[in-house]
Specification:
Order of helices and strands: EEHHEHHHEEHEEHEEEEEEHHHHEEHH
Strand order of the largest sheet: 6-7-3-8-11
Number of helices: 13
Helix content: 25-40%
Radius of gyration: 28 Å
Largest sheet: 5 strands, mixed
Distance between the termini: 62 Å
Length: about 450
Amino acid sequence: MPEEWRSVLVPIFKNKGDVQSCSNYRGIKLMSHTMKLWERVAEARLRKVVEVCEQQYGFMPRKSTTDAIFALRILMEKYRDGQRELHCVFVDLEKAYDRVPREELWYCMRKSGVAEKYVRVVHYMYERRRTVVRCAVGQTEEFKVEVGLHQGSTLSPFLFAIVMDQLSEEVRQESPWTMMFADDIVICSESREQVEENLERWRFVLERRGMKVSRSKTEYMCVNEREGSGTVRLQGEEVKKVQESKYLGSTVQSNGECGKELLISSSSSSYTFIPVPPTQLHTLATPHPPPFTPLTIKEEEVNRLFKRLNTRQATGPDSVSPSLLKHCANQLSPVFTDIFNTSLETCHVPACFKTSAIVPVPKKTKITGLNDYRPVALTSVVMKSFERLVLSYLKDITDPLPDPLQFTYRANRSVDDAVNMALHFILQHLDSPGSYARILFVDFSSAFNT
């Protein structure tokens, strides 16, 4: 491996807390972009041969923080509704990435079924690394780092998932009783004694292999607590008991509710909503659109759009695949530019572009009738590209036209904004004594089709 790829620059990033405490600083490693490309290739190969446990939600395909939060909330609500206690411990690992022993990494990779040649590849990536730290007075001399994973590396998250998968093999339970998001671990149980025993087993296994459980940041929460349920201890030291905890950015409450999380989301919204009386909501003046000028599509726009096509997109009834358009964009762009502009001039679109195949997609897991299917039209990829180009020209005209309270398919708006707007009006009424808000949820039947 080229020696230039082994150079690492570490700027000091302060996370939070006291500036005098070294533990409040995080060293993010800036690495060669070429090295990161090489890591991506290695990661793709490793993901094909390594199967990580279902309890791991971090850096896994089709999994995210939302899935872990949702699973935990559902479990908490189930026990709250059943008037039963649920004991949860939020385990925090101290300097998790920095503490992974290199020998432990090689061992876990081999035990996960990684071929020896790939173990050697990763070993070469970590071998003879030259690290310098950038600080206020300049850069330090080069030094070696012979423990831990690189923070800022493309490959490190998956390597850490492999390590955690092997370390937790002896102690983890099925999801959602055990859930991991990288180094964020949640252990749940129906009894305080059992969750305390499980926590001690986790501590023993992790610390035996070089990791360390943070005593100060690990938290214990009891959902639907009865009187005198007690506390949890770790090696004789009492774990901090909390009524709410920040889990993967979401505030989890011991009463199983999410009211505080909604208030936090509403207050941290990027929009500031100005109250508008209901009588004025739909009487706002609509600005006049700019005058329309003849539309001409440029060849470079077609070329750029073709090269951005997703090759996994389904091919339409005309059998023109996105792979063909993407890989032959330079040759096909002039042809389709001429076809598109001719269609605009003559107001006539080729019939093959307008042909679609209807694919019935189930709305539910259990099908009882035709209404349980959604008819999705599979259309030509060329036609979709044509539509995107025309839409990009029409945006200046169409953007001012929708109602101010329309949040769908508009730039810089999302479902979060719609929820926050609704919460804004609801909370306004809740703040006024004796006031209440009536809410009506309206659903249109087959709206697009009618």
